[in-house]
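Subject: mismatched residue count in predicted assembly?

I count 777 residues in my input, but I want to confirm that the predicted structure covers every chain. Input:
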Amino acid sequence: MFKNMQHEWFFNIRGDILSGLVVALALIPEAIAFSIIAGVDPKVGLYASFCIAVIIAFVGGRPGMISAATGAMALLMVTLVKQHGLEYLLAATLLTGVLQIVIGYLKLGGLMRFVSKSVVTGFVNALAILIFIAQLPQLTDVTWHVYAVTAAGLGIIYLFPLIPKIGKAVPSTLICIVTLTAAAIYLGLDVRTVGDMGQLPDTLPIFLWPDVPLNFETLWIILPYALALSIVGLLESLMTANIIDELTDTKHDRDQECKGQGIANIGAGLLGGMAGCAMIGQSVINIKSGGRGRLSTFCAGFFLLLMVVFLSDWIKQIPMAALVAVMIMVSIGSFSWSSVRDFKKHPISTNIVMLTTVAVVLSTHNLALGVLAGVLLSALFFVNKISRLMIVKQESTAAELRYQVIGQVFFASAEKLFASFDFSYAADRVVIDLTRAHFWDITAVAALDQIVIKYQRLGAEVSLIGINEASKTVIDKFGVHSDAQTAATLSNEH
Amino acid sequence: MQKILACIDESTWSTSVQDAAIWAAQQLSNPLTFLHSIEKQHLPDSNDLSGAIGFGARSKLLSEIATLDQLRAKVALQLGKELLATAELKAQEAGCTDVETVQRHGEFIDNLLALESTARLIIMGHSGSKTDKKVTILGTNVESLLRQISTPVLITPHDFTAPKNFMLAYDGRATTEAAIEHILTSDLLRGLDCHLVTIKNKHPDQHEKFAQATERLKQGGFNVTATYLEGDISKQLLTYQQENAVDMLVMGAFASPRLRQFFIGSNTLKMLGNSTVPILVMR
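Triage response: the counts match. Full output below for your records.
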């Protein structure tokens, strides 16, 4: 019991506390930005980020991963908030949590094995682009001051760390926000600030049951949203967990992470926060800053709340442009640049899957649909590749035709199988050797039946040899040609 | 032939484990294997708190961390090889003929569990490389290992001297009966004087069983001193051990359920934590 605590919580105290602080500073802009995307007050995203980070620290399956309010989730809530309001969003958040816990218990996280590397890359890139696009409203129809502040922000974020010694000792996001806020106040710049975007938290979060009628009508309203939220949340969380696994050379507990995300969302829903999930950019920042244990996630949430509640008067003054700069940094850091750099080296099918995933996400704003499209497409490409692994060899003597089928026979290669046989050759006897063939499905069996019957109707004796065990089971189950009665019926129909 | 598995690391306890292993190998004349586990260093080494992530942040971070891990692993690998070579040489010089060394990556306990089936006796230090030279602090690995393993484990203190006698804490339960059986069939404690000690408990047939156990050990050729004590189990046993200059403790592990131990504390752990002599634990 206690050993586990030591192992996952307190083996890296200094690193975890410092990295938690760094992450908390980057979480504030994100939580505010994503609240704005979802169309709710910044406090909804901030409460959510606090709750989710703190709860997932205890119940998550991947120590060191940061979960909070995210853009992927916020994009799915827009219409719900617009049409039905905040209370329905909170109810949907609760339902999302319940669904995720169910998914965790059903061990559906294992389905992640169908999500290929190129789909993950597409997902990550789409997410980065979405985060970037979400910043554009802050940058359109504004004075040149906003552009100047944003550019200065990016300059500080990327150039400050290059200063020797102090550059890497202080989070550059903090320097960016503090400097730009001070400059904006001092110069009296007419730029939008966080305070203009809605209510900020002024108290600690309080327990609230969503004020919605508890009936089926409510359920039908929130269910589609909750389904999409739970799937996208788990997809992003499990993908991020894989990325952290790779970085730290450790393993995560997939089902535990699904349940943990569920519990965290229920907690967020009850404390007035929106649904969230793991964040790729923040988790990378955490690992980069030396965070490894559960303590780092906890600290991120805890410091976030402290700063927000006790510094809310100051946070109101932060120019939105400074937050936009931080978000652009997160977007750049999340994007998989290697996928662009190695674009020419990768097979075309890989690139098509990646681009399709990105395109579907960008057009629907739903990451789940993008992943679905990517998974289907990569499955089709795979099927196509495997269907090429079949050849038919032909040998003929005066009265006998001899075929050898080698490779995988299934729906995608069945047509090719049929086309490989020569039906014009007048043979007394046809031998089909299946020793090195594998029949996978009913389509393959039907094609074989068709071939056998066709030869029989041409007056040839057909014998099948060397059906290997696996093929035999499929043929026994579906085949018709060995049944004389059925064969005759089929022949008459033609 | 089943092996004696001695677990060494870079701590100062390793010397004592080597001495104990040589002693056990000579008593049992079984082959001796030294095991060194390279445990992954979880501690990151980051001084970059800028929190800024730029172009290709993930792949850059991965290669940085991987390079660091590689450097650390190489050092650990080399260090382990040297430790094993030293131990092997020492055992051969002491006259052990059948000595081999094994080096494994991964958690020490996992490696040991994987090799358990080939071992008849496991020898490990009371503490490990992460603890200082304070004998009262039990190494973090010891307890979890004892709960998972069924092979006898010899836990050595910081300094090992070949024992002349041993004390068996007898409580009449199945684990101690099994320990007696083991003592009788094994050569490990052959030729040592036996102190059979029991602490009064609520079992009605305790006296009878105690007498039987004494008789069995005597018949097995042991020179037995049987003592019956009352009071706090671990305190009494440790006092007896000190007063009678007992060189080694033999006990069965974890008699009571885990939940009870959580609140009341386990006598096994108290003994392990407070002992300054080698302890042989049998399940």
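The two ends of chain A are 73 Å apart (CA to CA). Marking this ticket as 'not a bug'.
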